[in-house]
Queue: 3 jobs
Job 1
Amino acid sequence: MRDIIEVEVNPNNPSQVFAGSWNGGVLEINNGVLTTVYNESNSSLESITSDEYLIKIGGLAFDKSGNLWVANSHAENPFSVKLTNGTWYRFPYKSYVNNVLVGDIVVTRNNHKWVILPRASGGGLFVFDEKGTYTNFSDDKYKKISIADQNGTPISNDVYSIAEDHDGQIWVGTNKGVVVYYNPENVFTGANFYAQQ
């Protein structure tokens, strides 16, 4: 396995680590030993071609329930989740993302998933909430975000990094500097939702 670009430690089990490969899927490591490689044959992850070694993982993140969320670039279903019971589900948001590349993913305290649409494509951000119903997409909320200030003036969609702070605010690193979403819980309502540089 090569091109490991993301590593996440299970917050409920520090001896379990997951690593995302830009070529080979998701690796599960327990007590320092590689135990499982997740690919098309044993998960909901998708390859670029029929070659299972071209599964491009852009990001990993745990939610507060211990489920592992995966951003899967170049996939028809670009997001997957591995539940704590080992079951995998995929989410068909490609037409809404409108981007072949998906990058780092953050799961917020509101259980919203914020995803970078990487800098090479200048796609901005994508946010979704599956409402905990992994097979019912009719209640899902999702939104593609172009980063702008309170006047609607574009700041930058060239995004490098993202993080949620202890107050629940979302910090985004762009090629124009850092921006903050002070009210990320309003992402789907549109009320007072903008970034501040």
Job 2
Amino acid sequence: ISFPYASSGCRELFEREPEELETNAAAAIANIHPEDVASFQQSVALSAQTLQPWEWSGRVILPSGKQKWIHGMSGPERLENGDIIWHGFVLDISDRKQVETELRQNQAALAAAQRVAHVGSWEYDVHTQEQLWSQELFHIFGLDPNQPAPTFEQMLQLIHPEDRAWVMAQNTVEQSLATKTFQPFEHRLIRPDGSIRYVEVRGELIVNPQRQVTKLFGTALD
């Protein structure tokens, strides 16, 4: 492996001069984090074998000791002598990875808080009619969180028969869209195991700049 050309951006990205990389490719490859070396080698081998675009994300440890996340993309080309040359670029994605890590931590904290408080959250897309449920909401309804959220018709079957008509009459999605309000309500539900629970449902409407309702978002408290 060699680098016939490396741009001046390598100084900031790898803390090395372009000329150094062009004469000593091993120096840059040696900076790859030990835990990411295998995935890097596999990605290069696959691209060389299939001549499909190369794409890889991983960590590098710089000469200063600083660690970065990088993402590389390039297109392979086989030369007449059989060699393969890749034309591409590498990006510093450390900030993005930091945000992703913080997001995962926040999601984990939110899931823990919902579990402790017995509060689940839900989201309904007006245009696609898709529903998103938090893990705790599945647990409240006694459903498997690894399965898709139930359809509206399936949800009705979980509502206690004596409460079903009232829920339908007083708290429909159509009403919320028409009045641009969501009235909190309570009802009983029957879990698949036959147990009965009481839930309090609250929600709010999300509107776009044209004041059109795009989503409903809310909670269900056991």
Job 3
Amino acid sequence: MERTYRLFLSSPSDVADERGIAGRVVQKLNAELDGTLIDIILWEDHFYTANSTFQDQIDKPSDCDVVVCIFWKRLGSELPEAYMREDGTIPTGSEFEFEDALHHATESSPKTPDVLVYRKTAPVTFQEENLVFEKAQRDSFLTFWE
């Protein structure tokens, strides 16, 4: 009997290359594993309507078996106010996905999904024309990472 594992890949746009690598690794594993399939959930593999928010239309990380988060120098775009946290702050999509998965993993039985968080360690560069914005994104990421 074949077993399918659902893997949610969460990451902002600055690690697009790493998203591609992760997708290729999953394809290779699926070709080599016998009786096991990894179904990778990537937002870019689907189409979305304009009558609802993007986050409302993608699979929830907490509904998956494994959540992989990849970060480098930014957290991504803020979600709409409907996603406001109890403390009044509004998370980015990547923060929401991480928090949704982690909350479910610590509060559910069984403790799923497994949440794996990776940080790209390449030197950080900024575009001069976007310096203020990119620096603010980096500062927010570093606060989140701590």
